[in-house]
User: What shape does this take?
Amino acid sequence: MTDYTQMSLEELQAEQDLLRAEYLKFKNMGLSLNMDRGKPCPEQLDLSKEMLKMDSYIGENGVDARNYGLLEGMPEARRFFAELLGAKPEEVIVCGNSSLSMMYYLIDLGWRQGFVDSPRAWRHNSSIKFLCPVPGYDRHFRVTEYFGFQMINIPMTPSGPDMDMVEEWA
Assistant: This one.
């Protein structure tokens, strides 16, 4: 790899010209690249189409699911996900459809106030680390970067995150 710190001004300008020409070559190819990750394709989105054709949106407790609902989520949804997760319904929160919004809210809450078992708000710590499975979602990583967390990359194995590495950092 080129060490730009060791190059003269003339060498740096020549390198910039070379890189600009290479960039223009790619730009002139007319490529249309979408670098977003995690977006489902139309076929995946269509899987839930039939679920959206409902006659009644009233939950078992009389709450209309089209409105704000309940802070922790509809009881029937909490039971459903609790069973999938092997948890108790009272340990499950069912929010909107954006994991990014939920993550931002929780990170912000921890940063501003801390949690019940936090000795203080995270912002009062000199260093905050975040274990982050890679590959992952760049927008989620941006949330932790925004709050100044040190990102600790945890590689994925065929069976999930490298738990030996997670335990090293825990």
Summary: The chain has a mean pLDDT of 87. Residues 60 and 123 are 41 Å apart (CA to CA).
